Amino acid sequence: MLHRRHFTVEQANRVLPAVRAIVHRLRGARRREAVRKFDTELATHAEATGGAWPGRARARDAVEVALGFARLERLGLVVRDVDRGLVDFPALMAGREVYLCWLDDEPAVSHWHEIEAGFRGRRPLWVDRLSR
């Protein structure tokens, strides 16, 4: 198994409001960084700079990105694409490890895919529940 923690659909949807809030903050910080031409060296040293030049706002956004990733990782989630808001929740289905797949604009976790399949292999959960 790749992951120690696995979510049921119900558990994933229960933590979704917190995940959504973290993803929104991450996406906002990334957009602001893009507008300012994000500096990767600053991101590497952001926590140590405490907002020193080239500006407190840039340092704040770099720290927000780093902390956002750390929060999602502590929850046991896999961030696939911050800009799209694509997050995977490790899960078990029929005894095998899969990902419950969520996009930021979706109201609930309602899709899954095989570990190797990625986003292209996404399938609605209800199809699989009907086939059982």
Architecture overview:
The protein has 132 residues and is α+β, with helices and mostly antiparallel strands. It has one domain. The chain contains four helices and five strands; from the N terminus they run H-H-H-E-E-E-E-E-H. The protein has helices at 9-35, 40-49, 56-74, 125-130; strands at 78-81, 86-93, 96-103, 111-114, 123-124. Strands 1-2-3-4-5 form a five-stranded antiparallel beta sheet. A hairpin with an 8-residue loop joins strand 4 and strand 5. Helix 1 (9-35) packs antiparallel against helix 3 (56-74) and helix 2 packs across helix 3 (56-74). The radius of gyration is 17 Å and the shape is elongated. The protein starts with 8 loop residues before the first helix and ends with a helix.
Question: What tags apply to this protein structure?
Answer:
single chain, 132 residues, five-stranded antiparallel β-sheet
- Largest sheet descriptor: 5 strands, antiparallel
Structural class: alpha+beta
Shape, per Cα inertia axes: elongated
Mean of all residue-level pLDDT scores: 85
Number of helices: 4
Percent helix, as a range, is 40-55%
Whole-angstrom Rg: 17 Å
Strand order of the largest sheet: 1-2-3-4-5
**What distance separates the N and C termini?**
24 Å
